[in-house]
Amino acid sequence: MTQPRCYVITHKTSLVVQDAYKSLTKYNWTFEKFDAVDGKKITQQDWDKIGVKMSPTAGKLPVRPGAQGCWFSHFSLWERCTKINEPIIIMEHDIVVNGVWPTGIDIETCIVKLYTTADCKEKKEYGIWSKGSHAYTLTPHQAEKLLNRARTFGASPVDKHIISNIIPWKFLGYNLVTLNPGRGNSSTSGIIKK
After folding, report:
1. Of 148, 149, 141, nearest to 57 (Cα)?
2. 3-state secondary structure of 7
C-alpha cells in the first residue's frame, strides 16, 4: 500500500515541530501541516456545534484547555477522513519519523499505532486502550466509528477514545515513529494494567 495522506497537528508555539518536518522529509513522506485547535478559544458553542458533550469519564479534560484543543484537532481530522473518503495518518507535532512508509502494512482491519508499544490499560466497559495517540493510521470506516463514539458517549482524552470495545487497534511492532526526546519520553513497558 502506498503511504496514505499524512497530517501533522501543528501548534504555533511548538519548539519541536520542525524536527517532525525534517524527519518526514528525510524519509520522503508526503505530509500536510494541520493547524491545531487552540483549546483556550473553545466555547460551549463549539461543543454544541459538533454535537458532542464531555464524557463523565473525561478525567481532567474539562479543566485542561490544551487537552481539549488536542481532542478537537483529532476530531476534526476524523471528520476530514470521512469527508475525503480515504485513509489518513494522524501525527502530533512532537514526533520523529525513523524510516520510510512500510508498503506491506495492513491498515484496513484496525487502527495501527506507528510505534512498538506503550502502557496499556483495560477496563471492562472500554476494553484495552494505550497511553498516547501521537501517530496512527485511520480509514474512513474507522473514523466514522470514532465520531459515533464521541457523539454517543462524549469526549474523553484521545488515547482513551481509541478503545478495543469500539474499534480494533494494534501497535506496529517497531518504532517507525517516536516521541521527540526534546519533549519527553513515552513509556514502552506494554504492560496491561487493570
Report:
1. 149
2. strand
**pLDDT in the model for residue 51:** 94
The stretch 179-187 carries a mean pLDDT of 63
Helices 65-84 & 140-153 angle (0-180, nearest 10): 140
Give the pLDDT confidence score for residue 57 in this predicted structure.
76
Per-residue pLDDT for 87 more than 90?
Answer: yes
d(CA 142, CA 183): 29
The SS3 of residue 150 is helix
Other residues' Cβ atoms within 10 Å of the Cβ of residue 105? 16
Tell which residue, 146, 159, 154, 147, has the closest CA to residue 52: 154
Q: How many helices (H) and strands (E) would you count in the chain? A: 5, 11
CATH of range 5-193; options 2.60.40, 3.90.550, 1.20.1070, 1.10.150: 3.90.550
